[in-house]
Amino acid sequence: MKILRLSLPVLSCLLLAAHFSRGNNNILGAACLVFPFILLSKKEWVMRVFQVFLVLGGVVWLERALFLVQLRRRMNMPWIRLGIILGVVALFTALSALVFRSGKIREIFKRNGPGSVLPPVIAVLVTAGLLGIVQVVVKAPVMLLAERFFPGAGWVEVMVLALYAGWVTEKMVDPAKTPAVRRRLWLVFSIVFFAQLILGLAGVEKLLMTGKLHLPVPALILAGPLFRGEGFFMLILFGATVLLAGPAWCSYLCYIGAWDNLAAAGKKVPKSLPRWRHVIRVGILVLVLAAAFLLRTLGVPGIVATLSAAFFGVLGVGIMVVFSRKAGVMTHCVTYCPIGLAANWLGRINPFRVRITDTCTECGACKLACRYEALKDTDIKNRKPGLTCTLCGDCITRCKENSLRYKFLGTSHETARYIFMVLVISLHAVFLGVARL
Ligand code: SF4
Ligand code: SF4
Predict the structure, then answer these.
(1) Does residue 403 have its Cβ closer than 6 Å to ligand 1?
(2) Which of the ligands is closest to the CA of residue 406?
(3) Which of 16, 45, 134, 217 could form a disulfide with 313 if both were Cys (CB 3.0 to 4.6 A apart)?
């Protein structure tokens, strides 16, 4: 009986596959054919996503029905039978989602615990929504990668990355797994980003954003547009991300930060950096901006600016290798990178925070988890991490007293954490889809 009931939503997927194949989008058709296999995961959040998919499938049929009915009416052709048939197919597709409301079917899809359903589903919807906008609005040459190689396949990329966001969120909402999963997904992003860059350099131009190469040095996010007077994509992406997720740009999304994290993680106990590093950090930001402005004003050729930027980038890697490894602190990110400072400052506009409650016994255990030097003794005494906190969350699980918590606009700390996770993981998945040079 269960199999018979489940065959209804599967049939809806087959109908959608036929619809897309008939419209010459065989890739999306094939994706609809394999989509029901996600139910084999037997996870409740996957079931919910499947329900949303079926409702959206109904909308697809409805849109087609309206389009064809209008077309036929304009051409004075019979349209009533066609309208009824497509209307019934639209209803069938959307209503087949109700199969999952049956108690027997729901038994198959087990809940794993609090937070295991809603956050992954929302992450899927947010990711699909944002990438869907890119797929519909953005045209060549900046379109989604799959769309560049196979027209129509952009929607499949949207589906895959949205499911990926749900899967990662499911892992991340478990506090015990958060630090390890965060480091892995951050590294995955960096590897994908640089793999695209290397392949782009090797001649696969479709892997580059505009077909023109830019250097992947974070400092250039600010200095590049200032020098060129154009090329604002990364700056807009950075600004939007910092507004949404604050300084989490530095601990979840920066393609270079993942390297500094690797370098610092080699040492078990992080050391303290000298106090004057703050002055150096501000000085570097001012110098980088002033240099970009001067190079532009003096009409210096682009190649000179590119070589200067390359030198700045290589020096940054040297700082990771020498200083971050030695100190166990992400020295590149908290001392050298101008974008890191911009993220710390601008991130203050964003309402997400990590705070220490009064249950803190000042044992100092959390200090050992923080690679951003944001939990010095004075910070713990003040009950809030320092300016360099990137909201990474690594310290939270270290505290036996449960004194470290996310805060967001008066919501409970669990809700604040869920909202933060959904947001950063959705951004991570969107970045995988769009961030290339
Ligand atoms: S680990 Fe917890 S109790 Fe110890 S200093 Fe940090 S916040 Fe306070
Ligand atoms: S204070 Fe906690 S959340 Fe902030 S950077 Fe340090 S480990 Fe990450």
Answers:
(1) yes
(2) 2
(3) 217
Give the tens place of pLDDT for each residue, 218-255.
777 888 888 888 778 788 889 999 999 999 999 999 98
Torsion over CA: 36, 38, 42, 45 (sign):
negative
Q: Which amino acid is at 413?
A: H
Task: Report the helix count and the strand count for the chain, using DSSP H and E.
Answer: 19, 2
**CA pair distance 246, 178, nearest whole angstrom:** 18
- Taking alpha carbons only, the member of 278, 394, 280 closest to residue 328 is 394
- Ligand 1 contacts CB of residue 360 (under 6 A): yes
E strand or H helix that includes residue 128: helix 118-137
Length, in residues, of the chain: 437
251 Cα–ligand 1 center, Å: 21
pTM of the model: 0.91
Count Cβ atoms within 10 A of the Cβ of residue 93 and give its class: 0-12 exposed, 13-18 middle, 19 or more buried.
buried
Q: How far apart are CA 285 and CA 308, in angstroms?
A: 15
Cα(364) to ligand 2 centroid in Å equals 13
pLDDT tens digit sequence for 284-334 = 999 999 999 999 999 888 888 888 988 999 999 999 999 999 999 999 999
Atom of ligand 2 at shortest range from CA of 396: 2
The DSSP output letter for 354 is: E
